[in-house]
Design brief:
Largest interface: A-B, 38 and 41 residues
Oligomer: heterodimer
Structural class of chain A: mainly alpha
Order of helices and strands of chain B: HHHHEEHHHHHHH
Largest sheet of chain B: 2 strands, antiparallel
Strand content of chain B: under 5%
Order of helices and strands of chain A: HHHHHHEHHHHEHHHHH
CATH topology of chain B: ABC transporter involved in vitamin B12 uptake, BtuC
Number of helices of chain B: 11
Shape of chain A: globular
Number of strands of chain A: 2
Radius of gyration of chain B: 19 Å
Number of strands of chain B: 2
Number of helices of chain A: 15
Helix content of chain A: over 70%
Chain lengths: ~325, ~290
């Protein structure tokens, strides 16, 4: 049945289900199911590690969702992520956990819509600087607000069990990847791509550039906010320095580049590998940890311009013999 | 009189330091196109070289400029001619290069900061140097000295850019690297020198700051943020703009500190955000 459909719509994009695609789809499904079932099989560190990885998968994929095709380098991830932290703290105990996560997503969306409306006309490095400063602005405003209004530093969050947090993280990660795939395959994704290539031309060919950019930016913030709300429930105590940590803005970018941004699987691999490297270094060389992370980062950017994915593709082409003339 | 002695004079003195912190960043971005997030780390290096020389051979902090400046310059020169040059050659467009070099400099931040922490630890240090005040207006002598050094450096650098052959090559490379290359300018050499000079200014700023404020190995990021604000205030890549922007931010800082000290940081970011939105090319930028 399916092959018949494929033949009829040869060249069509959405309905292509050839043997190869079917195999990779099945592989993805198997991975999803296995990752989803991990807490039933084991407890403790493997679950924690996977939940860290899932967190960074969400952040990296959500970052790529907007910044990948458009080329606008956003360093605001930590602002939306931290906002999720604070939503979890404010509504902690007053609402059920899933509602808090949803609220964090909605707040992220609204704030990002506002920020995007104001800033997305900035080009290139100015946008990067602005989003960089935004995190620090929010951090300082929250710090001052706590000092003046609640007279505290930081807040407590009602914790949830690790497996609840894990499942929540897993669902959000699947959602993030799903939305990202759907957007990439739609006209909307094409519009984003063309904005990244030549914004004026995109506008002239009838794309509502401002709306497209704002909506995508806000959509990516939804997932960052949700991830923040979930992580906050594992920490018990948060303060503005923990919530609005600049590293959380840079790490997703680094991971996406480390994995390679050509395909969606790149940021996922990047997040997984980089988190694992970090974890290993942190336990083995706690003093040298950040030094080595910095070096890995520099080496990766310098010698792997297309990330792990680029290296893998080059290796595959070399193995297959590539486009060489027949010997 | 309170306004003059408590806002304007401290504002100018602080502004001088801000200007020096920022000129280097502006130079790095204006010519080498690297938005160096690790800029503040080299300010920290300059400060700690001074601290170390004072502690080990009791060298006068002002004399230690002679050591800290060349050391940081060479570091910058090496960094550009290895890391950033390679990135430049492998990046397809300038936008890609700007993004990648910014991330690489973020990695550099980790590396430099952690090496410094391994050497000097993470506790704060104070250098006691000329902090007796002069005149009746309660101006610390070390701040005046710092402002004097800033002005001298600014004037020298201006004449270097405007009158010398290398200065001309730097200006040409900033305007159009490709054409400058065709006119016989050794682009890679000039950019490496610019990057080194930018860092050397950070080193000078570090030495001066070490005589004014308490220093620790994690101080860099705060300085980078201030430098970024000032540089955007003045226009990215504009040296004069960075000078003016530094003084403006210094005055604002003094004003806000006078009324509500804990709002100083917020004021920085609010000014920054408002300015980026209303006039993204800065006070001196070409619109």
């Amino acid at each position: 049945m399916k092959t018949a459909i494929t033949k009829n719509k040869a060249g069509g994009d959405a309905a292509v289900l050839t043997g190869k695609n079917l195999a990779s789809l099945a592989l993805v499904l198997v991975i999803f199911v296995v990752v989803g079932l991990v807490p039933t099989m084991t407890q403790g560190y493997p679950v924690t590690l996977l939940s860290y990885i899932l967190r960074y998968v969400i952040l990296a994929v959500a970052w790529v969702l907007f910044s990948g095709p458009t080329g606008y380098m956003s360093l605001a991830s930590a602002a939306f992520y931290g906002l999720g932290f604070y939503m979890a703290a404010v509504f902690s105990g007053r609402m059920p956990f899933p509602v808090i996560v949803l609220v964090a997503g909605v707040v992220g969306f609204i704030v990002a819509l506002g920020v995007g409306g104001l800033t997305l006309r900035l080009k290139g490095v100015y946008f990067a600087i602005f989003t960089f400063a935004l995190v620090l602005l929010v951090q300082n405003v929250v710090l001052e607000a706590e000092r003046l209004i609640t007279h505290t530093r930081g807040r407590f969050v009602e914790t949830t069990s690790l497996s609840t947090a894990y499942y929540a993280m897993f669902i959000v990660a699947v959602l993030t990847i799903g939305v990202c795939v759907l957007i990439r395959r739609s006209r909307y994704g094409l519009a984003l791509q063309s904005i990244g290539e030549y914004e004026e031309a995109a506008a002239h060919s009838g794309i509502n550039v401002v709306r497209t950019k704002m909506l995508t930016f806000a959509t990516s913030a939804v997932f960052m906010g949700m991830a923040g709300a979930i992580v906050a429930t594992q920490r018990a105590y948060i303060d503005p320095y923990i919530a609005f940590d600049l590293n959380q803005s840079f790490l997703p970018v680094v991971m996406a580049m480390f994995g390679g941004m050509g395909l969606l699987v790149g940021p996922v691999i990047g997040a997984a590998v980089f988190t694992e490297i970090q974890e290993q270094l942190q336990t083995r060389f706690p003093n040298l940890f950040l030094l080595i992370v910095g070096m890995v980062l520099i080496v990766a950017i310098t010698f792997m311009p297309n990330g792990i994915l680029g290296v893998a593709q080059r290796a595959w082409r070399w193995l297959r013999g590539g486009r060489r003339a027949p010997a | 009189m309170a306004i003059l002695s408590q806002i304007i004079i401290p504002g100018f003195l602080l502004g001088g330091i801000f200007a020096l912190v920022s000129v280097g960043l502006s130079l790095q971005y204006g010519t080498a196109r690297v938005l160096n997030i690790a800029h503040g780390e080299f300010i920290m290096i300059g400060a700690f070289i001074t601290f170390w020389l004072l502690g080990s051979v009791n060298l006068n902090p002002l004399v230690s400029l002679v050591v800290s400046t060349p050391v940081v310059f060479v570091l910058g020169w090496l960094l550009h001619s290895t890391l950033f040059r390679r990135l430049m050659d492998t990046s397809p467009t300038l936008d890609v290069f700007e993004g990648k070099s910014m991330l690489a400099s973020f990695g550099l931040l980790y590396v430099v900061q952690n090496i410094a922490r391994m050497i000097w630890g993470s506790e704060p240090h104070n250098i006691q140097f000329m902090n007796n005040s002069v005149t009746s207006a309660q101006i610390p002598l070390n701040r005046l000295v710092a402002l004097g050094v800033v002005i001298v450096i600014g004037v020298i650098f201006y004449f270097f850019l405007a009158r010398t052959r290398l200065g001309k090559a730097i200006r040409a490379s900033a305007q159009d690297p490709t054409t400058a290359g065709l006119m016989g300018v050794n682009i890679h050499r000039v950019l490496a020198i610019c990057f080194g000079l930018g860092l050397a200014m950070a080193g000078i700023a570090g030495t001066l700051i070490s005589t004014l404020l308490s220093i620790d190995t994690a101080m860099g990021l705060q300085d980078t943020v201030i430098a970024m604000i000032v540089v955007v205030l003045g226009g990215l890549g504009s040296i004069t703009g960075a000078m003016i922007g530094g003084v403006v931010l210094g005055l604002v800082s003094a004003l806000v500190t006078y009324y509500q000290p804990s709002w100083t940081n917020i004021a920085y970011y609010v000014i920054f955000v408002v300015l980026l939105l209303s006039r993204p090319k800065g006070i001196m930028g070409k619109a």
